Amino acid sequence: MSDIQAIERQILDAIASATDEAALEAVRVSVLGKKGSISELLKSLGGMTPDERKVNGPLFNGLRDRAAAAIAARKTVLEEEALNARLAFERVDITLPARPEPSGSVHPVSQALDEVTAIFADLGFAVAEGPDVEFDDYNFTRLNIPPDHPARQMHDTFYVAKQADGSRHVLRTHTSPVQVRTMLKQKPPIRIISPGRTYRVDSDATHSPMFHQFEGLVIDEVTHLGHLKWVLEEFCKAFFEVDKVEMRARPSFFPFTEPSVEWDLRCDRSGGQIKFGAGNDWLELAGSGMVHPRVLEMCGIDSTKYQGYAFGGGIDRLAMLKYGIPDIRSFFESDLRWLRHYGFAALDLPTLDGGLSR
Given phi > 0 = left and psi -120 to 50 = alpha, else beta, which region is 355? Predict the structure, then answer.
């Protein structure tokens, strides 16, 4: 009996000393395996007399049951310890902020583009888009720009490699090809705004080889310059966030409009800032005019039934005027200090109700 108790103490000490499941499994094999110490004791019952088996059988079986129970209990403890250790190692503290502060911002050009789009959407204009690489036919010919026009020359337009048929594509010099595409696939009435990138061979403080324009087009049975003037006035009041504006018209020439008009906006340049709606100075705003009948005909629209007006301006220039940015080249220099100063909060989307540039 004392020998059984000694064996049991040794087994229980070994089980308690197991520090992980692998060590505990080794103890189990050494005790309950085919050649384990308890298994050998059970095998020895076969060589005992019936009286000896009556005495030792319950002792050996009880030892086996207690050892198995102790191993199972120790295994449960080790599994919980391993799980707790894993959870502590893999824990993620969700109470910490993902970022201490916002690190990105909306570029002033993107902000101005969103503002322009929001304003014209409120005026009933749909947004139309087109490719940056454009057919020469759409960029020039269907806009009544003759083959010898200076805008077609290499010093003003980026041409790409010739196609297999000998034709050449261009990087669009304005977003007017979007108007052409719209007129070719959509019947009047048409009321669209076409913002996007444009490209011209020019670079200085107020010009960039790649810049952004917005152009508007309205085609209907009854349109006139009064409609055009009202749309531009409403746009200027909303964009520059003033109660009133004063505009004056100057006759001009564009191949795709007749008559053609350029608009100036009254402003005050005193104090190193430009303020709109007051003052004695004038600032060139946009080019516009009534769509030339030849453009309508080349785009498949009956010029005896329909007429329309078109207008356009530079989004980069509008951003410079509104946000006091002196040099257009800084828009494209990727200077993080400049972007942090002039940038807008990423989720602060411009709306007419909430304020465009708040």
Answer: left
The residue ranges of every structural domain in the chain are 2-90, 108-342
Residue where the block lists tokens 């009064």: 226
The tokens for 131 are: 């490719």
Cis geometry, peptide bond prior to residue 50 (ω within 30 degrees of 0): no
Superfamily of domain 108-342: Bira Bifunctional Protein; Domain 2 (3.30.930.10)
The tens digit of pLDDT for each residue in 262-278 reads 999 988 887 777 888 78
Q: Is 295 a residue whose pLDDT tops 90? A: yes
Distance in angstroms (rounded) separating the CA atoms of residues 271 and 287: 28
pLDDT interval class at 122 (50, 70, 90) = very high
